Amino acid sequence: MPEQKRTFKKIAFLSISKAQAKKAMAELVKIYGNCDAGHADVIVALGGDGFMLETIRKHMPLIKRGLPIYGMNQGTIGFLMNSYGTDDLYERLENAEAAQISPLKMTAQARGGEFSALAINEISLLRQTRQAAHIRIHIDNSVRMDRLMADGILVSTPAGSTAYNLSAHGPVIPLGSNVLALTPISAFRPRRWRGALLKNTAKIRFEILDPDKRPVSAVADDTEFRNVTEVCVEQETNLEFTLLFDEGHELDEKILREQFAT
What is the pTM of this model? Predict the structure, then answer.
């Protein structure tokens, strides 16, 4: 039997608090109506990439059950967003390409206890003071680097590889490649180490050396835990989010274009 075409007649519109975004949302609601997210076919988020990540966290139970999100850019950075427009939204949604994104899971030990968080883009460890962080890196229960001296280090998904990871000179990773980027941030020793590509099944553990003298924060996208002593990272391969992108502007196409940007 031919695959049934998706329909997105019940839309839940959400927006950031900026006046421009609220005005854009009012225009869309006037044309298409608005539905509670719990009864919607799709969430349309108006904002930037940060708002997209916030929307995913806020509606995690619905998104885990398969509710897709379609972003419209009304923020500063819109890599995860589509262009804003009021025309033909039903058609845009029905013709959109779906990107399946598996997040990273972080479990951090800190002075206040144990904390966990999910990240779509990256999990980063960052020095909290003027002194460089000293970090021991374990991969699948084996020590791969006894001491990294750096401003920090991050683990990036393919979807997040064009964000902080790229700014830190990490590699751009195509969607579907089943790898993660491990990228140092301003490494002092070993000075020439540029990071590694790991299987997305890898279990990564960061051990903070001398945490009292050289305190470190752990950040999952924009959720921060300070004074961590140990951080474990792995990809939640059994959990997928569905993001929708206009034809010709799919996420994998955006990632490919970034590799040829000048």
Answer: 0.83
